[in-house]
Design a protein that fits this description.
- The structure is a single chain.
- The protein is α+β, with helices and mostly antiparallel strands and about 450 residues long.
- The protein folds into three domains: about 5-10 and about 95-250, Reverse transcriptase/Diguanylate cyclase domain (Alpha-Beta Plaits, 2-Layer Sandwich), CATH 3.30.70.270; about 30-85, no CATH class; about 270-420, Dna Ligase, domain 1 (2-Layer Sandwich), CATH 3.30.1490.100.
- It has 20 helices and 13 strands.
- The strands form three sheets. The protein has a five-stranded mixed β-sheet with strand order 5-6-1-7-8. Strands 9, 10, 11, 12 and 13 form a five-stranded antiparallel β-sheet that branches.
- The protein binds a DNA duplex (18 and 18 nucleotides) through helix 4 and strand 9.
Length: about 450
DNA sequence: TCTGGGGTCCTAGGACCC
DNA sequence: TCTGGGGTCCTAGGACCC
């Protein structure tokens, strides 16, 4: 039997801050998002406080699957309430959290042969076959928990199960029920006990069940994790697809998901941020977009990628009822995939100009790089869409075609030409450029596009 | 006054090809 | 009765995660 452990830090951002300020341990602590917009982390004391006073500020505008009444509240709505209760409030410090996260994951990696770093504050560990080495897994997990606390001052909970979904679920219970003292090993309990525990977990708290699925499942009479475990797998498969089938199997202890020890490269890199103040001016918008583009390009180069798709979006504040709402985005494919900051920022600015409307109070901008591949592979892909041309992708003939295009229409004209083209049209253009049949018709190709 | 910033996967249907 | 059939690519939309 496979055995997975999920180690998850409690209220990670808040705990990081508390770690350096032990005097805060007995006070409510919250951490705010970018521009101090809303609450993204709250320690247990703050959460309890909020639960007692939910009616004071309602459930908030964010549709979160599993809302804790405190999380994602706009800060301004709860600021005075928090102040009355002597809450410590922090702006987010992502460098600190990133550093603490790296330390925690490094430490956790020491406790198992295999580790998957699942998120900033969660690791899956492979504990399969460890009982012979370490004996009781609950005791082992308690030891892990204590080491992390001693080393970093971070409280963590450990859930153990025979599938990732069960480990997640065990972690959830370990955090919620004080009697487990932060550790629950579902592989060590009897079937009856396991089922009794699953009955106590709301369907929406199962990993992979968001609000939409939860609503639908409840309507079908599936209200708890146990209900899902024993539900008819074929019916669910038909109605929800393969994801739900997998969840049912995982709940039954059949591991369908494996540990991913090497994080895959990103398929898409996004940099988006709301502004502290409304921005009207194109120049200022350009600055922001150029910065985001440069950061995204940096990230792209870190994974040795090149992007083939670029999009820029801007919007006004959707919460401002008294102002007209405007949101738009524009995308382009790049005939030459690139990781160049200069080119990417330049093209991003060009896209921005297409969607910018004077007179709007902009609130947010974003840059997205997509269709990312490893450098060498993408070159081949782009220069040789047909196998018959792939023998020598950088053949003299091809290069001369490109030289010819650039000479005739100016450097960068290919990017310009491909703006707004559909994927298919781009391929057609590339094929046209690569194919000896078309080399004499470059002028036509460029004119057409 | 003041409302986050990232990501992934699956599916259905249409276009197109042979 | 039954009006071809199989395959791929692309896109949009819907769901989820932290």
């Amino acid at each position: 039997m496979l055995i997975f452990a999920l180690v998850d830090a409690n209220s990670f951002y808040a705990s990081c801050e508390i770690s350096f300020r032990p005097d805060l341990a007995k006070r409510p602590v919250v951490v705010l998002s970018n521009n101090d917009g809303c609450i993204v982390a709250a320690n247990q004391i703050a959460k309890d406080l909020a639960n007692q006073h939910t009616q004071n500020y309602g459930s908030g505008g964010y549709a979160s699957a599993k809302p804790t009444s405190m999380m994602f509240q706009p800060y301004f709505k709860v600021a005075s309430f928090l102040e009355r209760h002597n809450t410590a409030v922090f702006s987010s410090n992502y460098e600190l959290y990133g550093d603490m996260s790296a330390r925690m994951h490094r430490m956790l990696g020491e406790f198992a042969a295999a580790q998957e770093i699942y998120s900033i504050d969660e690791s899956f560990l492979d504990l399969t076959g460890m009982t012979g080495l370490v004996g009781d897994l609950t005791a082992y997990a308690q030891m892990i928990k204590q080491k992390i606390h001693q080393g970093l001052g971070l409280p963590v909970a450990v859930g153990i199960g025979s599938s990732k979904t069960l480990a997640k679920l065990a972690n959830h219970l370990a955090k919620k029920r004080v009697q487990f003292k932060g550790v629950l090993d579902l592989t060590a309990v009897s079937e009856d006990t396991l089922n009794a525990l699953l009955k106590q977990v709301e369907i929406g708290d199962v990993w992979g069940v968001g609000r939409r699925y939860a609503d639908k499942l409840v309507a079908m009479g599936i209200k708890s994790a146990y209900d899902l475990k024993v539900a008819n797998i074929k019916t669910l498969r038909k109605q929800f697809g393969v994801i739900m089938e997998r969840m049912v199997r995982e709940l039954n202890g059949q591991a369908c998901l494996t540990l991913e020890m090497v994080p895959p490269d990103k398929k898409q890199i996004v940099r988006s941020k709301s502004f502290g103040q409304p921005v009207h001016d194109l120049k200022k918008l350009e600055q922001a977009v150029a910065t985001y583009a440069a950061r995204a390009a940096e990230k792209l180069r870190q994974q040795h990628g090149v992007c083939q798709y670029l999009s820029v979006s801007i919007r006004t504040n959707p919460f401002k009822q008294d102002q007209p709402f405007y949101a738009n985005h524009h995308a382009m494919g790049l005939v030459y995939p690139t990781d160049s900051t200069i080119l990417i920022t330049k093209l991003a600015k060009r896209l921005l100009k297409r969607i910018y409307q004077p007179g709007c109070a902009y609130h947010k901008a974003a840059v997205c790089l997509g269709e990312i591949s490893v450098k060498g592979a993408m070159q081949l892909d782009v220069f040789a869409p047909d196998p018959q041309y792939s023998a020598n992708p950088k053949s003299d003939a091809l290069m001369s075609v490109m030289d010819k295009v650039n000479a005739k229409f100016g450097k960068g004209s290919l990017e310009l030409a491909s703006q707004g083209l559909k994927q298919k049209e781009q391929w057609a253009m590339r094929r046209a450029m690569c194919s000896p049949r078309y080399t004499t018709r470059i002028d036509e190709v460029m004119v057409v596009y």
